[in-house]
Amino acid sequence: MNTKIVSIDRDKLDMSVIAEAGQIIRAGGLVAFPTETVYGLGGDAFSADSSRKIYAAKGRPSDNPLIVHICRMEDLYAIVQEAPECAIRLADAFWPGPLTMIFRKSAKVPYETTGGLETVAVRMPNHQTALALIGQAGGYVAAPSANLSGRPSPTLAEHVIEDLSGRIDMILDDGEAGIGLESTIIDLTEEVPVILRPGYITKGMLEAVIGETAVDKAILNADAKQAPKAPGMKYRHYAPKGSLLIVAGSMERVTAAIRRLAAKSRRAGEKVGVICTDETAALYTDADVVKSLGSRQNEAAIARHLYKTLREFDEEGVTRIYSESFGDNKMGQAIMNRLLKAAGHHTIQA
Ligand code: TXA
Ligand code: MG
After folding, report:
1. Is the CB of residue 184 below 6 angstroms from any atom belonging to ligand 1?
2. Is 183 in the pocket of ligand 1 (CB under 6 A)?
3. C-alpha angle with apex 129: 203 to 74, nearest 5 degrees?
4. Helices (H) and strands (E) in the chain — how many of each?
5. 3 state SS of 122
6. pLDDT digits (tens, 9 = 90+) for 45-75
7. Distance 79 CA to ligand 1 centre (A)
8. CA of residue 197 to ligand 1 center, whole Å
9. Burial call 299-322: b when 16+ CB within 10 Å, e when fewer
């Protein structure tokens, strides 16, 4: 398949491009598009066939449900059985934005889109290109992250091109996705709402609006016996090709341990990479590839650079990667969650 790649600018939208992309989705095709979190791979959420195509293009297991993206609040009611009051409050506070809410689904949403579940995940992204495309595509766009299954989510159109070129109809290139980590997911079908995936919208921000929320125990604890409630969280996503070890502890101990490990791996013939921060980058003189995610003072930059950096290590043929760890306040929890998954929960205490 020939994939059409078109540049677009969210601040000066070329509506003829958006109309063409919307028409492709309405006709059952697939279009990758930017959002404020990561790039998504969009298809018609009401078409079982489009959802099957999404799974095939990504090489994704079909028990892993898709998020339905909408662009108008009133469109929510057609796809859910009921919108609880807390959902309305969360939508008021955070939509459009990086929050996905899970509801009981209506009959309109095919099981192919929800991975066989009775529930549906819904999000209204905060990105002009995405919102315009959803409108032109009929209002309901099913979209997982636009990466091959098992690769880091795409934060640039280049990443989408790398993974999906030749497998989908169109890619809209609108530069860098803003946040760089996928949306926070909250399940509203339980008595107490449960966070299934941490993201930019933190537990504290959610609780300020709706009161007590719980966190799915499987998120940060690899030993938790139960499977995560978001089926996608059980897969080893975001896996770099080189084996990745996270080193936790005080900064002094972490840098010393990584220096020691890097030197040792190098002597063993490995090509060694280090994931670190501006504050520590100069210390790792014994590694082949040293990449800083940004300053520890700037959590947003660290989030934005994580997936891109993991991809870069793959390109450089690094065989062993050591990473510093990050605190679990605010977005730190989302960063650690993705890093732990990339590492297959392989961590040591320095
Ligand atoms: O920021 C985002 O959410 C991006 C952009 C494109 O919007 N999308 C995204 O989609 O990250 P995806 O498919 O890569 O991740 C969706 C996650 C998966 O872990 C999936 O299992 C979970 O949401 N999920 C979807 N529907 C669900 C449901 N009904 N119940 C529980 N988990 C669900
Ligand atoms: Mg994904």
Report:
1. no
2. yes
3. 65
4. 9, 16
5. strand
6. 999 999 999 999 999 888 889 999 999 999 9
7. 16
8. 9
9. bebbbbbbbbbbbebbeeebbbbb
